[in-house]
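User: I'm curious whether this sequence folds into something compact or stays loose and floppy. Could you predict its structure so I can see for myself?
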Amino acid sequence: MSDGARQSFTDKAGAALKPDSQKGMLESGGDMLKGKTDKMAGGAQPEGNKGMLQQAGDAMTGAGSTAGDLVNSAANTLGGMLGGAQNNAQQKANEKK
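Assistant: Here's the prediction. I'll summarize afterward.
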């Protein structure tokens, strides 16, 4: 069981197990945002205040990364999502010509 202010392990597993190809843009963005927020919370929460399962979960997911790393990762992810949507729209426009 995860600590109170953190994303539950079942939510994390559900997001990880569902293929990105089956997620819409909003669901993908929401999963990314929840994951990044949880990692920042994991980095801000002292190890002594975490339960044993939360410590193990953080060790497996890398929660505790620096805020700068997370911001860069989020920006790269959003840029990739927006670029992919733009490419799809352009392909559809080209197909209609």
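Summary: The chain has one domain: 9-96. Residues 83 and 89 are 10 Å apart (CA to CA).
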